[in-house]
Design a protein that fits this description.
single chain; alpha+beta; Uridine Diphospho-n-acetylenolpyruvylglucosamine Reductase, domain 2; Enolase-like, domain 1; 5-stranded antiparallel β-sheet; 11 helices; globular
């Protein structure tokens, strides 16, 4: 690990200012991806800007028809929140299935979204519910946020502050875990509500994506039976030692049907 300077700003403005002033600085949220990358020499920031003391960065609240979750809120806090369990239980279930207790305690919502790992769970929830990502500069719709492999719409130094999730009428998330990492070999988030019918898939491609064929079938009838016979192309899906593209395409359909049945 290369030497680095450590900063702990007390405001969003200070954090952003520090990030712009340093040549190769990185924001530090939970550190569950960044720190291992630094240990392996895959990342070498000159400065780490710890976001743990930012006011309002943690917490869960109702904001009109949406559930607002601060970017520095841990997976464990979401998983155990009575408010989340009441308003959007699918989010609590998703958070409870991330990694292990240590990862859930340190990992954060904002850190996961900014990293945009192709097999992470939170991107599926954000895209699957049509959420809005709040930053220090603007609001970004879920459909515009995820651009590609580890790529998002965030500009240089832009900082996620919170995410607003519309409360759905029905929603569920299921994933087929890679046993060692507990990342999603395939994960499917389905919802029906103010944002319409949405199906988001993680783990199967280079980036989270919406399954339009499944959405079209569910828009006619939100039932597991409506998905029988819907075929998904394996083109552009991941293929590796854990599963072929065809296997992942099949898993998407299986998990989508199970998630819909659970949501109903």
């Amino acid at each position: 690990m290369t030497p680095f300077a450590f900063h702990r700003p007390a405001s969003v403005a200070s954090a952003v200012q520090l990030r712009s002033a340093q040549g190769d600085a990185s924001y530090l949220a939970g550190g569950q991806s960044l720190l291992p990358a630094m240990k392996l020499g895959l990342a070498g920031p000159t400065d780490l800007i710890d976001l743990s003391l930012l006011p309002g960065a943690q917490g869960i609240s109702l904001d009109g028809g949406s559930l607002r979750i601060g970017a520095m809120t841990s997976h464990a806090a979401v998983a155990t929140s009575a408010e989340v369990g009441k308003q959007v239980p699918a989010l609590a279930c998703l958070a409870a299935g991330i990694g292990d207790p240590a990862v859930r305690t340190r990992g954060t919502l904002g850190g996961s979204l900014a990293n945009n790992d192709p097999a992470a769970c939170w991107p599926a929830a954000v895209l699957g519910l049509g959420a809005t990502v709040h930053t220090d500069r603007r609001q970004i719709a879920a459909d515009d946020f995820f651009l590609g492999l580890y790529e998002t719409a965030l500009q240089s130094g832009e900082l996620i502050t919170a995410v607003s999730f519309p409360r759905p009428e029905r929603a569920a998330y299921l994933k087929f875990k890679q046993p060692a990492s507990r990342f999603a070999l395939v994960g499917v988030f389905v919802s029906a509500g103010p944002q319409g019918v949405r199906v988001a898939v993680t783990g199967a491609g280079p980036c989270v994506f919406r399954a339009s064929a499944l959405e079209a079938a569910l828009a006619k009838s939100f039932s597991a039976a409506a998905l029988h016979g819907v075929k998904l192309a394996a083109d552009d899906l991941n293929s590796d030692l854990h599963g072929s593209a065809a296997y992942r395409a099949h898993l998407i359909g299986v998990l989508a049907r199970r998630a819909v049945a659970q949501a109903v």
